[in-house]
Specification:
It is a single chain. This protein is mostly beta strands. The protein has one domain: Porin (Beta Barrel), CATH 2.40.160. It has 1 helix and 11 strands; from the N terminus they run ββββββββαβββ. Strands 1, 2, 3, 4, 5, 6, 7, 8, 9, 10 and 11 form an 11-stranded antiparallel sheet that branches. β6 and β7 form a beta hairpin. The protein is globular and about 45 Å long. The relative contact order is 0.20.
Amino acid sequence: MTVPHPFTPQLEFAFTISITLTKPHWVTPPARGDMRAAIHAADGVVEGPLLNGRVIPMSGGDFPLTRPNGVIDFDARYLLEADDGAVIYLENRGYRWAKTPEIAELMRRNEPVSHDSYYMRVTPRFDAPDGPHAWMTKHVFVGVAEKIPGANRIHYFVVR
């Protein structure tokens, strides 16, 4: 029997952000062997037990770097608006990679794939105003993301 480590963190589901993305703009040809793009966050919805609201349309986006080995290194920044009107800055860093070349090709063509056929995880940081959302600036979060054609859905968990 495996005994859990005494410092194993507990995760609590906080909310899901569903983001509609614009068409990517690629920086080509790549000078370093990797590909850079810009993809704006067109709009989106925030839903969950700890936060509800929306993605402020066109308030930012993702500037992913695709490495020659197929790993995508995310650098996303955009604004959320909570239901109470508070504006919250989100900075997301993370990685996505397909488990097979065939899945990578389907994802490149923006076609649907099963969530268990790729790895897509993010580590966000939030800048929220004092008040009911200040807790977001004092905790570490982990996001498990889904790639949906033309969109992303990211499920955020607060580390307790």
